[in-house]
Amino acid sequence: MNDTVVVGVDGSPSSLAAVDVAAHEALLRGAQLRIVHAFSRPADLDPMIHGALAGAEQRAHDRAPGLEVTRTVASGETLTVLRSESRHAVLTVVGGRGRGGFGDLLLGSTVVQLAAHGYGPLLVVRGRPGPEGPVLLAVDGSPAGAAAADFAFAEAALRGAPLAATHVWNTWSEPTPYEGPADPLNVVVDLDRLRERHQRLLEEAVAPWREARPGVAVELRLERARVRHTLLDASRQAQLVVAGARGHGGFTGMLLGSVSQSLLYHADCPVAVVRGTE
């Protein structure tokens, strides 16, 4: 990775809002900003270059004076172009709605594929304008979740924001060992024991980063509830939600199931999806 933040632009209001966020993220990192547009019809290219892309560049300069900004236009399919660009980025930013080259970004599986197979963190700008509150980290304790924790703590430090590390558990999200006759209906759940185990999981999942970044104020949130509803509700008081691209337990198939889809489509603030090392 180098010191570039990439933002996908198609001229839609959502992509211009993404430029604002991307410019701010680049400024925080001391990075440059690359504005990227994918096109499939050459007839649309000239108006885009001299219209929306020029406007996006000016918008970035207005948002972050002194920021180094470059523009790239590429012929090709949205996912292919952005995936290629993400290879050279510390962060890739896209809007939650779009048109033209990025019009299908949050339709079907495109954003899921980009999050799962792109390079580096993906930030989807959506939700209320100017969100405030903590950085919300979705903790599941999986090895892949370490990359998400690293990113979330770094974001909290850059933004001067507290971090709310949230782990949601329930008795139906994973198999529960029990002692007794081999009768599938004879299941005895020790809630206190489960709660203690999940509390340890939460504490251990964030411990290395709490130690590495002592300046970040951390709140540990352990909740017994449904994962999707709990995270969506928490996003209403957060400025950013950070989740890993792979998980287990309550976050099984994070980028393939209902939890990830709900965050990407319905969260009330931007959502960052972070891939771990393969």
Number of beta-strand segments: 10
Extract low-pLDDT stretches: 249-257
Provide the succession of SSEs: EHEHEHEHEEHEHEHEHE
Please tell me what the overall shape is.
elongated
Query: What structural class results from the helix and strand content?
Result: alpha/beta
Q: Please state how the strands of the largest beta sheet are arranged side by side.
A: 3-2-1-4-5-10-9-6-7-8
Helix content: 25-40%
Mean pLDDT value = 84
The radius of gyration over CA amounts to: 20 Å
Helix count? Answer: 8
Multimeric organization: single chain
Strand content: 15-25%
How far is the N terminus from the C terminus?
16 Å
Descriptive overview:
With 278 residues, this protein is an alpha/beta fold. It is 39% helix and 20% strand. It has a 10-stranded mixed sheet with strand order 3-2-1-4-5-10-9-6-7-8, with helices on both faces. The longest helix has 22 residues, at 191-212. The two termini are 16 Å apart. The model is unreliable at 249-257 (pLDDT under 50).
